[in-house]
Amino acid sequence: MTPHLHRKLNLKNGHVVKANIKGSAMVMLMDDSSYEKYTDGEDFDYFGKKAGVKPVLLKPPFPGEWHVVIEQTNPAKDIFVNIQIIGE
Questions:
Q1: Which of 17, 53, 64, 86 has the fewest CB atoms within 10 Å distance of its CB?
Q2: What's the CA gap between 76 and 38, in Å, rounded?
Q3: What is the Cα–Cα distance from 49 to 47, expressed in whole angstroms?
């Protein structure tokens, strides 16, 4: 498993996850099943993209418990992460 930052969120209809990242990282939003596959090193599904200058906005396709995973693209460099839920 790749070293990563993780947070489990209970998201409702209309919620959007906003990830502000300083540094190079991949931001992924996945359900319980996909997160388990991710941690087991198996193929998994996710919503997300590489973080750049702009914040990453991710809207889950349905309400429920979701995992936000931040994976550094260069583990030798520090990253700074701020996660917000918009629409609360």
A1: 53
A2: 22
A3: 7
Q: For 76, which DSSP code?
A: T
Torsion angle of C-alpha atoms 29, 63, 10, 18, degrees rounded to 10 = 50
Concatenate the DSSP letters of all residues of 36-50 into one string: HHHHHT-----EEEE
Around Cβ 63, how many Cβ atoms within 10 Å?
12
Inter-CA distances, 13 with 19, 39, 52, Å: 18, 27, 26
The pLDDT mean for the chain works out to 91
Given a cut of 70, whether residue 1 has pLDDT beyond it is no
